């Protein structure tokens, strides 16, 4: 896989940089979780310091800002340490480049507004990709979190421009590959949260590659349901039987909660017994990979399981890898993010990679 390290002559070159700025924003327009944005700074700095003219592209889904980056520009300036010019539409990108290049001076980076305002983005439309890449010398993908999606700015664009991986993707691939390939002895996988359809494949892939898999959240609910437990009104997937087909639910390496915090006939957190059992396993681990909270952590009444598991992992001497938006939010709330050896910027992409799938964005970068 070619990376920005392979680009040795960037002075005056025009670079289209795909990043991940899809972050939560509150009703006052304040960015609530800036981790993904800050992770983009190293690659952006490198390109600018090498003399490149950079146009940044991303998407944002938060309705609080009307799915537009316009009101977030001042915050992005602070987080990235660069003045950010704003381009409203893809048709204005060409004129933006022409304004700066004839002067022969370094241009401030610019951000094109939400890519998903263009229907061609999610349709993976080659014509939109061609329009997006017009006038650029290179394409750099630094958005690991969208590499599992067939989007025009992720996969097709790499057929139009010489394509390179940014530092974020390089690090993600290296660290997550290590998690897969390292010896199973002492390797613990912790899987929680919802979206069992993306998480069960990880369990399948790691069952023979790890010592134990600890489950919580809806993923655990689905397993318990199929093992015959009455789940009351708890959240479970209707197609849980189909999701879990072929997985040995009685495998002694696969742990599910044995007690719970229940409210309104719903399981909303793991119980103290399960929590301490999981913490004992964590204390003996050599590597821990965590994606997904143990319960409804957003409500403090049901956050204890997630909080205590996070503290136990942070205190462990194991190599600690974690990812997923909710997991990051839970750990960041405790001020423990810097206690982890690696925090993935990807949620779905991290899970897809760990389950052994080929990610379209990485295939486009010729990653094998």
Automatic annotation (TrEMBL):
GO terms for cellular component: cytosol. Keywords: ATP-binding, Cytoplasm, Glycolysis, Kinase, Nucleotide-binding, Transferase. Its main location: cytoplasm. It is an enzyme of class 2 (transferase). The keyword Metal-binding does not apply. ATP binds at residues 199, 298, 324-327. It catalyses: (2R)-3-phosphoglycerate + ATP = (2R)-3-phospho-glyceroyl phosphate + ADP. It is found in: Cytoplasm. Gene3D superfamilies: Phosphoglycerate kinase, N-terminal domain. Belongs to the phosphoglycerate kinase family. This is Phosphoglycerate kinase. The gene is pgk.
């Amino acid at each position: 896989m070619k990376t920005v390290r392979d680009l040795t002559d960037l002075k005056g070159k025009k670079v289209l940089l795909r990043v991940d700025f899809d972050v939560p924003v509150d009703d006052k327009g304040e960015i609530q979780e800036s981790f993904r944005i800050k992770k983009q700074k190293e690659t952006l700095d490198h390109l600018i310091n090498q003399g490149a003219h950079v146009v940044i592209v991303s998407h944002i889904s938060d309705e609080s800002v009307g799915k537009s980056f316009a009101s977030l520009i001042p915050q992005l300036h602070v987080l990235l340490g660069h003045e950010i010019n704003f381009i409203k539409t893809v048709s204005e990108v060409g004129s933006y480049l022409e304004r700066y290049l004839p002067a022969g001076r370094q241009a401030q980076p610019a951000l094109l507004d939400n890519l998903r305002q263009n229907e061609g983005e999610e349709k993976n439309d080659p014509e939109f990709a061609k329009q997006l890449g017009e006038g650029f010398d290179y394409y750099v993908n630094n958005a690991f979190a969208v590499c599992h999606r067939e989007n025009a700015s992720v996969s097709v664009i790499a057929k139009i421009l010489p394509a390179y991986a940014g530092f974020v993707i390089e690090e993600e691939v290296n660290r997550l590959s290590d998690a897969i390939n390292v010896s199973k002895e002492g390797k613990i996988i912790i899987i929680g949260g919802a979206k069992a359809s993306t998480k069960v494949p990880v369990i399948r892939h790691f069952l023979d590659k790890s010592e134990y898999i600890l489950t919580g959240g809806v993923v655990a609910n689905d397993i318990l349901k199929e093992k015959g437990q009455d789940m009351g009104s708890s959240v479970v997937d209707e197609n849980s039987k189909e999701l879990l087909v072929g997985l040995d639910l009685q495998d002694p390496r696969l742990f599910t909660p044995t007690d719970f915090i229940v409210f309104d006939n719903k399981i909303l957190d793991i119980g103290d017994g399960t929590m301490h059992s999981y913490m004992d396993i964590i204390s003996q681990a050599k590597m821990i990979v965590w994606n997904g909270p143990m319960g409804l952590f957003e409500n403090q009444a049901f956050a204890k399981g997630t909080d205590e598991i996070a503290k136990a992992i942070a205190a462990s001497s194991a190599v600690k890898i974690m990812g997923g938006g909710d997991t990051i939010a839970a750990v960041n709330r405790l001020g423990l993010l810097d206690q982890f050896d690696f925090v993935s910027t990807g949620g779905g992409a991290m899970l897809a990679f760990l389950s052994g799938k080929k990610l379209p964005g990485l295939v486009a970068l010729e990653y094998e």
